[in-house]
Specification:
Number of domains: 1
Number of strands: 0
Low-confidence stretches: none
Radius of gyration: 13 Å
Distance between the termini: 34 Å
Shape: globular
Length: 68
């Protein structure tokens, strides 16, 4: 969870740790992020199934509603 030498901000850890870092960034005024993964398919699926629900619980994201 440290800043990289390439100018990025690493979000590494459990879903709860990642959301805590995102909450910290939000509290500092950040309202968006650009994400990338090393193993895109596997890590994107993990993000969707494990991190997004915790983000919803923390109030960082509204639940997905395909009807809207």
């Amino acid at each position: 969870m440290a800043q990289s030498r390439l100018g990025g901000y690493l979000l590494i850890g459990t879903p709860e740790q990642i959301v805590d870092r995102l909450l910290h960034l939000s509290d500092m005024g950040l309202d968006g992020v650009v994400l990338s993964w090393v193993n895109y398919e596997t890590e994107l699926a993990q993000w969707i199934h494990e991190v997004l629900p915790v983000m919803e619980q923390a109030g960082l994201r509204r639940p997905y509603d395909p009807a809207s």
